[in-house]
Amino acid sequence: MIDSDIPYTLPEETLDLRQKVGQFFMPAVFINDTEEEVQQMEKLIKECHVGSICFFHSRASAATNFEGKKKIVHNEKSYDRLLELIERYQKVASVPLLVAIDAEWGLAMRIENTAQYPYAITLGALTNGDDHIQQVGKAIGDDCRRAGIQWNLAPVVDINNNPENPVIGYRSFGDDRERVFGKAKAFLNGMTNSGTLNSIKHFPGHGDTTTDSHLGLPIIDKSMEELMENELYPFKKLIESGVDSVMVGHLLLPQLDADNPSTTSAKIISDLLRRKLGFNGVVISDALNMHAVSKKFPKKGNLEQAAFNAGMDVLCFSEHVKEGMDKILTHSSKERIQESFERVWALKQKVFSIKKKLNQPEPNALSKLNREIAAQSITELYGDASIVAKIKSSDFLNVSASLGKTNSFSEQISSQLGVEIMDLDAGLASNNQNIVLSFFPPAIKPKNQFGIDKSTLGSIHRLIKDKNTLIYLFGNPYVLDILQLKESSNVVLAYQDFAEFQEVAFDHFSGKTKAKGKLPIQLKTFQP
């Protein structure tokens, strides 16, 4: 189904006040829901005149499984299920739904067997890569529109200036305000070219915190001057350029509002975002089920009312739609309701008026783009380049710490250079002092040491301490902060474990290509 085929002719005048309030709600919908749960959502959409929905993978995914205790079931046919559910939900809607998703690095963020593009931190390593970033934004937008999704809740424009940030990290373009602004602008230009709506997030800036807002309320204790100088800079510049929506994160900024998290703060939404920064578009909340705010409003509907009262237009992941509607209808003026309705309505009019033929992507277009980005982003962090030369010219050991992932990099060293692959224990036991270590951290997020077990981490520590080790890292560069690197350590950052990135890494090792990327962040423990 192509969303541009949806008829959108319902005049505004036919909606009563309750129907208009329904347009503010964006409940979560899940690919792996049961038929009973799907029918319940159909009933909710129909009865409450829901304005938008946001797709997540399953009720065991990160969207509701913050502690990671539920098992996530892999679904090979989730894309087909996505198309089916979009069609069903649109059919029962009195007004065409805005269908949203978090596709920061493609539909693969939520949907199996769909195109995955590089993370923002990888794009942040590109030194002259705005064209490639724009291509990524365009391709992701096209993928969304082909599926019937009009609204990609991206990009992240948080400046990740805290290496211990548990939830942003790799989702940010970096820790420099100009870099974040420029690369976000390129991404937005690409999405706009596809006809996909965007949302810059997480206002007023989620980068400088060690708290995950899924679990608790992060505190950003900075003055307005400090915020304008850094955190707010990308938001301000992008708002001036024009964006469809701004997502407000769940943050406490005591110097601006000591009593209310940003989600429910009129001082932050109405005063700062609307008046000071001049944003007149749609303001959407981060997921309202997140513990940073949901635990503070135990009575159903109160959180939705508080967020709306503070200036919010769209209530993402509202778990209490009916109660929230009743509260807003009871406590909000007709003028306030009309104000938000007009913003949401304008967004719908904009996206559904686009008549754009969406062709299927060229064969191998994704692989070609990923390889080009890999070649431009690969980064050298050399503490002692003479050791690198010594390793490469020696009878080095080809040590793999792939931790369950496909390691074609080591396989290429084996097949093309004739150096047998060995594991960490064999590398440690050998008398050979020269090591090429290819390392694939199991997780992209820092929780539980990026998923690295204590034994593996200990072996890597010993290898780095006792041997001349050249590390090729296929993962989050923040991993380097837990590897106990020395000043003389040498690392090549490939950032992703995609096949294309491993091919480029082998070309780099072989001397066929030079490293052109630049680390977009500051590390705590390793600054060669």
TrEMBL record:
Residue ranges the record marks as coiled coil: none
Keywords: Glycosidase, Hydrolase
Catalytic activity: Hydrolysis of terminal non-reducing N-acetyl-D-hexosamine residues in N-acetyl-beta-D-hexosaminides
Keyword Phosphoprotein: no
Domain Glycoside hydrolase family 3 N-terminal: 17-345
UniProt-listed PROSITE patterns: GLYCOSYL_HYDROL_F3
GO molecular function, one term: hydrolase activity
Entry EC number(s): 3.2.1.52
Top-level class of the enzyme under EC nomenclature: hydrolase
InterPro entries per UniProt: GH, Glyco_hydro_3_AS, Glyco_hydro_3_N, Glyco_hydro_3_N_sf, NagZ_Beta-hexosaminidase
Protein family (similarity comment): Belongs to the glycosyl hydrolase 3 family.
PANTHER family in the record: BETA-HEXOSAMINIDASE, BETA-HEXOSAMINIDASE-RELATED
Protein name according to UniProt: beta-N-acetylhexosaminidase
Organism: Flagellimonas profundi
Upper taxonomic lineage: Bacteria, Pseudomonadati, Bacteroidota, Flavobacteriia, Flavobacteriales
